[in-house]
Amino acid sequence: MTATELITHTPVWVWPLLAALLALGWMQTRARRVSLARALALPLVMLILTPATLVVRLAATGSLTAALAVWGAGTLGAALIGRRRALRPGEHFDAATRRLHLAGSWAPLLIILGIFCLRYAVAATQAVNPALAAQPAFVLATAALGGMLNGWLVARAWALWMLARSSM
Fold this sequence. Notes:
single chain; mainly alpha; 3 strands; 7% strand; membrane; DUF1453 domain-containing protein
């Protein structure tokens, strides 16, 4: 299958989703003030969707338990390593307005694109080469990478939660 065929066989709903994710990531490149709930929304959604996606994708295989364990370990490891570096200079929580003052960064856009590209690549591999997509090494490698990407989101959410909590 050529790249053109792959793109033309991609479900139509994927492209508006990509546009929305790009917009979400782009908004985070600028300094902004947001509620704690809004800052925590994306990481929480990803913490629910990613394991759910693994369950749906791997339910009929023997790799589900191992994939969930590897994803969880990747998420936890990245969160523990990244939480101390997740805040940027000047970021703070204003207790009076109950808003986080966040610096702009390109990192969220890159993480969001990384997660999207990983999921797209896995879906494309399942469509083009299902035997490869079912290989334990492929399943575990993609679960580990997905876990590490999610771990960055968790680290950031954790740091923002702790920042807000310490200011209340």
